[in-house]
Amino acid sequence: MPLTRRQFLIGTAATAGTGAAAVAAAEWMKGLDEQPPMPRDNTSYSTGPITQQNAPTPAANVQPPSVVASVLTRMTFGPRPGEVERVAQLGLDQYIEQQLHPEAIDDSAMDKLLEAFPSLTLTVAQLYENYPQAKPQPKPDPKATPNPNATPAPSAKPARPKGPQQVIYELQAATLLRALYSERQLFELMVDFWSNHFNIYVGKEGDKWMKTVDDREVIRRHALGKFKDLLTASARSPAMLEYLDNRVSVKGKPN
User: Fold this and answer.
1) Within a 13 Å sphere around the CA of 94, how many CA atoms are in the beta-carbon half?
2) How many Cβ atoms are within 10 Å of 80's Cβ, its own excluded?
3) pLDDT band at 36, cuts 50/70/90?
4) How many angstroms separate the CA atoms of 129 and 101, rounded?
5) Are 255 and 249 in contact (CB under 8 A)?
6) Predicted pLDDT at 248
7) Where are the domains of the chain?
8) Residues pairing with 253 in the sheet
9) How many CA atoms lie within 13 A of 182 on its CB side?
């Protein structure tokens, strides 16, 4: 019977934490056979085995921090300050269940940060229109005689270009911010994984504009869905077709 995503993640978490849990359990159990320290007045007392009644027991439903940290290292971009304790208290099963449903996680703070990058929500046509390729500036004539009386132009800080380089910059910045601050960590980790698997060079011709749409409509839409749907969407993506030179693959001269 095929495993569900939840069963797979829980199994992976259990495997990842086995070593750490074994060490923690061994340390806890080691004290059961140790004799208590003798009092200073040398009063004798029984040193028999500790009974089940007075033996220390770990808190119920709370995983050791080492296990939680190990799981978070695999399921996220790394635990943030205080996150190990929070997830340990919540429980790994509950945390995994939440991460498998990113649409139910409040990520409004992340959405607020992304408002600084308007290109993320545009269509390919809008990106071409709003971020056109800058026309090359004419090179100065090397034979021209410089005017000695000309006033030099004041130096000014160059403005960030609003061409396709701006589109690339906003996509890269958004990717980094999502990895750092998004509450949907498993989702963002899978977006990163599939972006590497279905790699597209963002600097290639039309992909300067189209990769942003591919990220939104292909990778992010299907990151936690069925692989068949993701594969089909990627194969039909204009950005992928551009990257694989299918635009110039024609009958009689296939790519």
Assistant:
1) 9
2) 13
3) very low
4) 36
5) yes
6) 83
7) 60-99, 108-133+161-248
8) 250
9) 22
Mean pLDDT of the chain: 81
CB-neighbour burial class of residue 171 (10 A; exposed 0-12, middle 13-18, buried 19+): buried
Rounded CA-CA distance 66/18 in Å is 10
| CB-based contact 218:233 (threshold 8 Å) | yes
Q: Are 183 and 110 in contact (CB under 8 A)?
A: yes
* Type of residue at 182: S
- pLDDT value at 205 more than 80: yes
Q: How far is CA 205 from CA 197, 209, 234, in A?
A: 21, 9, 18
Q: pTM of the full predicted structure?
A: 0.69
Burial class (CB in 10 A: 0-12, 13-18, 19+), 88: buried
CA 14 to chain centre: 22
